[in-house]
Structures
1.
Amino acid sequence: MDKRPARAKLWSDIGLFYCAAIWGSTFIVTKGALDDVDPVVMVAIRFAISAGLLLPWVLRRKSLARHLREGFYLSLFLAALYLTQTTGLLYTTASNSGFITGLFIIFVPVFMYLFRREKPTKMQGLSAALAIAGMWLLTGGASGFNLGDALTLIAAAAYAVHLIVTDKYVKAEADPVLLAFHQFWMVAALSLAIALLRGSPLGVASVNGWGVILFLAVFPTLTAFFIQMLAQKHSEPFKVGIIFTLEPVFAAAFAWTWGGEEFLWVKAGGGLLIVSGMLIGELSRFDFRRALRKEVLPV
């Protein structure tokens, strides 16, 4: 019996847990550095470094201009995601940001209906209801919903659209390295342009700020991207989705321990409802009848 496929699946699952954990850590890390650098400038530098690190592989491609159009479309949603999420951290907690960003799973069926006329299932409706109730508890209702929470909600919506459009391009056999590179440098350019228009200070005030930006560029942006891409060759999409629901859990855990944010039971309950909604959203994609018949899964 060849143990290589089982071993590859094990390592891919470990890689996906790494992605969820490293992405979860970014919320408190990013928030801690915003005293040293403007959020828009942070995004610009972060993605410029990531693009530069990808350049050696890009230069091996025959056509550097390939996927420019696709990269441009994706960069708009990626920039919307990170600019709103990072700016939102100025006004909301890292734990709130992590949980609200996790609502992207709830937005996916909404946009699938708008773009492809695929009607949400009853399970997806239930997941949305749980997530909305969770956000109500998490933010303290309408009176507690602040600018940072609103910006992060926009980030979650942008995340969902980015996933859907990326899926379309990847299934069309797009080169993932070029697709990532064009997104990275375009997000950097767009963020820099916005920073200049706003008159934002372009400097980074401390060594710690630079350390955080380098961490964000290398680990959650670059390495996690490639690990996710490789891991998805061996892991079922259903399993990938389930593992990724742990991202907001990691975000809250880092915020409440390492970050020193106050733990409140009502907010923890709201976060639990959001994660439950995410899990139900993923379960709605699973065909249990096919599983009982032991057919090829996951969806």
2.
Amino acid sequence: MKRIAVLTSGGDAPGLNAAIRAVVRTASYYNIETIGVKRGFKGLIEKEFEPLTPRSVGGILGRGGTILLTAREPRFKEKEFRQKAVENLKSENIDALFVIGGNGSFQGAYLLSKEFDFPIIGIPKTIDNDTFGTEYTIGFDTAVNNAMEAVDKIRDTGMSHERIFVVEVMGRKSGFIALDVGISSGADITLIPEYPFPLHVIVQKLKKSYESGKKFSIIVVAEGVTSAKTLAEVLEHYLKDEDLGGIRYSVLGYIQRGGSPTAKDRIIASRFGKKAVEYYLEGERDIMVAMENGKITKKPLSITFGKIKKPELEDFELVNILTL
């Protein structure tokens, strides 16, 4: 009987448990045993293994976080510890490793294949949705919805006090979350690193909005552009002579990564997990499952390395066209 291992690595994202569940149950359907690796690459080095069965992954589809836990592991950058990881896998007669992770996790896992000829299958997840080679990564939709709901609530306060609110969302150096939150929440200004917005244009848009009769504004800013605090302070300086109700800021932070995954994340994670196992059974290795034109496909794991995925310019134009 074949035996595979599965781990989650890097930052947590809603939908990880749905992916784990799909891998385990699809493997069981095809008479494959699954071993769960706790705490990502750290667990590979320290051999934190546990059997996973269709019953042990019951009831986790709607849970946030990851039942396998996750951790950063600097030691994995050293070849001797990667060798230890492979030795641990082989000692349990494990035939392939399924890595649910992002760019960094895939690069680390790929080294196991390149250096020790160990089969790797990747499943892309990150709330940032910035993994090159796939249109979608697990966790993105939930993060956007979490942030959108927060902005909707902040809007009530901004409207009541006639204030400008600067809301900072996550995404590292990527603007995917900010852009979708800006569109879905009707933000007045959306700032993302891929398409810079000059400061004087921001100031002019706020003044024009106020002069047109709108006495409050919402600015959504990706953390890769600047901090909400810094932007609020700068705008306070440039608008100090205007009769505004004040400028406030809010940093949404980790609230975006937590909570129960949306239906979309549960479904896509389930589809990714199932297809990952089936690709493995077809003899594929060193690939990641991906979404392209709305359909599940496969891409070489190496396609993600050193490349940047950018939001569509058309979506950025949309958020600006719909701003009054």
